[in-house]
Design brief:
This protein has helices at residues 19-26, 30-38, 57-72, 79-103; strands at residues 17-18, 45-46, 52-54. It has 109 residues and is mainly alpha-helical. A hairpin with a 5-residue loop joins strand 2 (45-46) and strand 3 (52-54).
């Protein structure tokens, strides 16, 4: 019987950005990026070596956080609440538009 050496395959997140690339793309310091991940404001995964990997859509999310932080002078810890409320308002507005189209009602605004 022939014995074959064990081969380990590394899992690579195709299209995901590592911390350095994400920091460069967003203009955020890597430590701030780690803080935003810890606060749950940016989604990231860890790779097999423990490094952070970011889906490309998180670049836009980071830009939104930067605009809110600068424009509203909201601290990073409070940004989660602000983004949740803004997302909820957007959902309600979309539901209202759908309802208005379906029923033909005129908007009160």
């Amino acid at each position: 019987m022939t014995s074959y050496p064990l081969v380990r395959l590394a899992r690579v997140d195709v299209g995901h950005l590592d911390l350095e690339s994400f920091s460069r793309a967003t203009g955020l310091h890597p430590e701030l990026v780690r803080r935003l991940v810890a606060l749950g404001l940016i989604d990231a995964r860890t790779d097999s070596s423990g490094g952070l990997r970011f889906p490309p859509a998180q670049v836009a999310a980071a830009g939104r956080l930067q605009r809110l932080h600068a424009g509203l002078a909201v601290n990073y810890a409070s940004l989660g609440l602000v983004t949740d409320l803004l997302d909820r308002v957007a959902e309600l507005e979309a539901a209202l538009r759908t309802r208005t189209r379906r029923t033909g009602d005129r908007s009160w605004t």
